[in-house]
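Researcher: Good morning. I'm working through a list of sequences from a screen, and I'd like to move beyond sequence-only analysis. For each chain I'm collecting a predicted structure so we can compare shapes side by side. This is the next one on the list. No need for commentary yet; just the structure.
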Amino acid sequence: MKITIIGEGAWGKALGMVAQKAGHEVHFWSRQKPVLPKHSDALILAVPAQVMREVLTQLGLNGVVLISSAKGFERSTGKSMADVVSELVPQAEFYALSGPSFAADVMAGLPTAVTLAGPDLERASHWANELSIPTFRIYPSDDVTGVEIGGAMKNVLAIACGIADGQGLGESARASLVTRGFAELARYARKAGGKPETLMGLSGFGDLQLTCSSAKSRNYSYGLAIGNGATPQSALAASKGVVEGAATAAIAARLARDLDVDMPIVDAVTAVIDGGSKPGDEIKKLLSRPVRPEHE
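Model: Good morning. Structure tokens for this chain:
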């Protein structure tokens, strides 16, 4: 088949390599190469969430298979990538690709497993099989909502873990943040219509675990810089790539309030990067919260 990768950054190149190894003809579209092939069996959207609307508008697509690897909500509207695509390309067949994966690991041929969610399990299985290779294993799902929530929210929680490590709070604190952050993510996903089992899988807990514990994660590294004393603005300027969680935090906090979901860690990150609060002050607030049953 003919697969077009939209975006030629590190992740776009990694997914293009996977598609080639899976036996497909691969083309790239980017601002430097803004020409689409006449026909593609599928387009893989390997661009950040905050530019997805702009890119889709520029492409002017009709009915087509679109596979999004973006992990975030649109900051201006709060929409998921599925909602943005539905608005701009209503005839598209949409899939969300997410899971614990670094582009460098994929390019190096290291074993990686992710989730691909689509309109139904049969169609998701078809594309999972078409794009899987031995070192890039894709598990199909029909829970687009859950997969997108896991991918977006974990970036905000990774910033929290980076801040905690930068403040020297230790590995026990990081483990607690990951666990309590996952509880927040799961609470929100249930209210928003995601399936609990999706959040327990690769695109939820798996991605959260990876992103919250590795310096390869731009979100974790961004939080680490803030925890070490950088301002959110200077840490963002020094980042070597897009920090999706920095753009997602405020909208994630707003979406949680809209659904009446308690997400104190997300609120704390938002207060630091958008509200001018000091990391130490937000940490004190979290540590002074009332003691409640863990699974309440």
